[in-house]
Amino acid sequence: MVNKDKVIIELRDVKRKFIVGDEKVYALRGVSFKIYEGEFVTIMGTSGSGKSTLLNQLGCLDTPSSGEYILDGMSVRKMSKNQRARLRNRKIGFVFQNYNLLPKTTSVENVELPLMYNKEYSAKQRKEAAIKVLKEVGLGHRLDHKPNQMSGGQMQRVAIARALVNNPAVILADEATGNLDTRTSFEMLVLFQKLYSEGHTIIFVTHNPELAKYSSRNILLRDGRIVDDTINTNILSAKETLDNLPVEETVDDLITESESRDD
Amino acid sequence: MSILNLFKIAIKALSNNKFRTFLSMLGIIIGVAAVIVMMAIGQGSKESVRKDISKMGTNLLSVRPGAEKMGGVRLDPSEMQTLKIADYEAILNNKKYITYVSPEVTSSGQVIYGAKNTSTTIYGESPEYLDIKKWEIASGSCFTDEDVRKGAKVCVVGKTIVDELFEEDTDPIDKVIRFKSIPFRIVGVLEEKGYNNWGMDQDNVIITPYTTVMKRLLAQTFFQGINASAISEELSDKAIEELTEILRESHSLKDSDEDDFTIRSQQEMMETMSSTMDTITIILVVAAGFSLLVAGIGIMNIMLVSVTERTREIGLRMSVGARGFDISNQFLIESVIISLSGGLIGILTGWLGTLLCNHLGFPASIPMWSIVVSFVVCTVIGVGFGYFPARKAANLDPIEAIRYE
Ligand SMILES: Nc1ncnc2c1ncn2[C@@H]1O[C@H](COP(=O)(O)OP(=O)(O)O)[C@@H](O)[C@H]1O
Ligand SMILES: [Mg+2]
């Protein structure tokens, strides 16, 4: 599945320092790697090791203090704010730890959001695209629900659908399972593995080493440096792990399951 | 993002906070309504003053003693005694563009009939005064030139005097009233005129020969003024020239001397009046306008709160590709919606207020342009006071915004 001919992301000695008062904080001290199309990369490291800072560089939310970043063939470092906004809109799909859905807004509308900032989509096309990805993440029955009417797992599915809707070059997930219980976390992993199998490029940040076994490549960060970067040849199936989890169903899960069976 | 979508988002955000939106609109509503009502009252009273003045006759001329001074202040009392019988006679003998002339001397005081009394003003005039003022006699007749020559103690009275002094159904003709202990026999009653725009009761008058007032009442030899009428409104200017010439000659003024009298036409008075009304209107509107300024600050305040509250949303929008421009537009449109719909409701409220004013007897009419101006001002307020909060939102750092708790 990994396409070694196509480099999606290339970092060359990327450094990022923050200046807090008189002190300098070195969050990234020279990071270099290439990520190919179709890879499922887990970035691990303890808290404060620079994972989020790295992901913000990759997501064009932040610019490196030095070094080069090439996304899908384009050099990001010298881009203007507006050019980076456009790049985020067309090439990146973000999934956050706390979902970040708009309150009082339906799933479909939440998922449509990135397309609102893309003039090429008409209202009808936006809606169709949103419904399509919501079905892909298994929320065909929750199209008109608002965030306060859904469980954490469902909200994160909406967020993943939103990350998918613009058909991005890469999906970036920062602690996407951080707020979810074990069972729901594995449900998310099942979804990510499905997307991986469909050819999506995924970068998944976590501080939980367990989750690394389910991706195709593992990068370990410590103190702003890469200390380990290995290809995982023995990818575990999240589906199997989920099935083998001790059954301890919550009311929430029961509702979800019975309703998904109805579909 | 398209304007339509920005509008949808703004409407949704505003309706999520209906009460707050209403409160910040309220300032604009009150401000605009106040401005509209003030303008309407200004316009309305100007119109009715104009109507009143033109009813009095636009060919009216009035001569007052003393030169016209800046600010209209006349200080030297001797200057006030320059209009005399000789001037009146000179006018009568030389007039070409003038139809009627009447000298004027007035005095205020109590008028008594039996046990009743009321305070009034007595006007010493010639019989032509009624022609100048286009004033009809309702019953009886006016005093005559003969009465003027003799300084007869006869008078015509306004409706108010009749109402105040006499029982109902009493015929006032030939009754004798006393003004400053001098008896006057009533020979005629004037047609009712009502109140003028300055709130003065025009029917509270006694008109009597000027000679009577000068000799018997005041013992003075000069007039307070001379009233005249030009042949027509168009010939007013000619008539003024003529009057000026006659009076300068009768006062033996040298070419280098300034006029020691002032002539005003009704036309001029109308213009002076209008410009005074305009000034008053402007003052009122500016005062009301300040409440719009305060309302604008209120909108700015609520928009700043809104930006802070929605920091996470702004961060999210940026992370999915919104540019600073998209974000600032979103908030600008919100504040413009608040101020414009506030303005619209304000205009409606102002319109109702104007109806109420008319109902209560204040003449008020909304000038069309004040509605246009209100719309423009509201847009300017929306954009002006929304700009700073919108900039603040657009300049947020997406990473910090999305982590904001
Ligand atoms: N905006 C910032 N200003 C100052 N220091 C920061 C900022 N963001 C991150 N850091 C610092 O950079 C380091 C890496 O942070 P981060 O990337 O959030 O770590 P992780 O996500 O791995 O927990 C930390 O020491 C953190 O304090
Ligand atoms: Mg982090």
Automatic annotation (TrEMBL), chain A:
<dbReference type="InterPro" id="IPR027417">
    <property type="entry name" value="P-loop_NTPase"/>
</dbReference>
<dbReference type="GO" id="GO:0022857">
    <property type="term" value="F:transmembrane transporter activity"/>
</dbReference>
<dbReference type="InterPro" id="IPR003439">
    <property type="entry name" value="ABC_transporter-like_ATP-bd"/>
</dbReference>
<dbReference type="InterPro" id="IPR017871">
    <property type="entry name" value="ABC_transporter-like_CS"/>
</dbReference>
<dbReference type="InterPro" id="IPR017911">
    <property type="entry name" value="MacB-like_ATP-bd"/>
</dbReference>
<dbReference type="InterPro" id="IPR015854">
    <property type="entry name" value="ABC_transpr_LolD-like"/>
</dbReference>
<dbReference type="InterPro" id="IPR003593">
    <property type="entry name" value="AAA+_ATPase"/>
</dbReference>
<keyword id="KW-0813">Transport</keyword>
<dbReference type="Pfam" id="PF00005">
    <property type="entry name" value="ABC_tran"/>
</dbReference>
<keyword id="KW-0547">Nucleotide-binding</keyword>
<comment type="similarity">
    <text>Belongs to the ABC transporter superfamily. Macrolide exporter (TC 3.A.1.122) family.</text>
</comment>
<dbReference type="GO" id="GO:0016887">
    <property type="term" value="F:ATP hydrolysis activity"/>
</dbReference>
<dbReference type="GO" id="GO:0098796">
    <property type="term" value="C:membrane protein complex"/>
</dbReference>
<keyword id="KW-0067">ATP-binding</keyword>
<dbReference type="GO" id="GO:0005886">
    <property type="term" value="C:plasma membrane"/>
</dbReference>
<protein>
    <submittedName>
        <fullName>ABC transporter ATP-binding protein</fullName>
    </submittedName>
</protein>
<dbReference type="GO" id="GO:0005524">
    <property type="term" value="F:ATP binding"/>
</dbReference>
